[in-house]
Design brief:
The chain is of the alpha+beta class and 166 residues long. It is built from 7 helices and 5 strands; from the N terminus they run αβαβααβαββαα. It has a 5-stranded antiparallel β-sheet with strand order 2-3-1-4-5. Strand 4 and strand 5 form a beta hairpin. The termini are far apart.
């Protein structure tokens, strides 16, 4: 009996470390998916730097409670899978919502992003954000446009003063 308890404590400790190492985690219901579809989701998640695991709800609840994510722990009921992201915090939500468009049985339950518990609506909004690289490109384009406009204005200013001096 005590070895089972020790094993569960070890599982909770391992999950706590995995959650701490993740930039975001998303819990979702998958009941009704075929094994083939679930494997397809796992491959898509892995390709985007995410890991999907099915962990007993009791273990997840204990680990989430230990980290202070009570709202996340409360959402653990029924068959739940958890997606972990160590690189891009938007990737799990984006991949799951994209997959759920064609597979209505997939339902996002809750998540933790950068230490904050997110509900379904917040995760959906997060999934609509462009990727980090796209945001950087948009920022660079916006800054480049501003610099270009400044260069044009300065050039016109210099030309006006040259004409006035002649």
């Amino acid at each position: 009996m005590s070895s089972a308890i020790e094993q569960k404590k070890t599982l909770v400790a391992e999950l706590v470390e995995k959650i701490k190492a993740s930039k975001s985690i998303v819990a979702f219901k998958y009941q009704g998916l075929t094994v083939e579809k679930f494997q397809q989701l796992r491959r898509a998640m892995r390709a985007n730097g995410c890991d999907v695991q099915i962990i007993k709800n009791n273990i997840t609840r204990r680990a989430a409670s230990e980290l202070g994510y009570a709202a996340f722990a409360d959402s653990m009921s029924g068959p739940i899978a958890i997606a972990f992201a160590t690189e891009d915090m938007v990737a799990p939500a984006k991949q799951i919502y994209t997959f759920a468009k064609d597979n209505t049985c997939v339902e996002v339950v809750s998540g933790v992003v950068d230490g904050d518990v997110y509900n379904v609506n917040q995760l959906e909004e997060l999934s609509k954000l462009p990727s980090y690289e796209t945001l950087l490109t948009q920022l660079a384009a916006g800054m480049l446009g501003t610099v270009r406009n400044l260069a044009v204005a300065l050039n016109l200013y210099v030309e006006e003063h040259e004409e006035a001096a002649n």
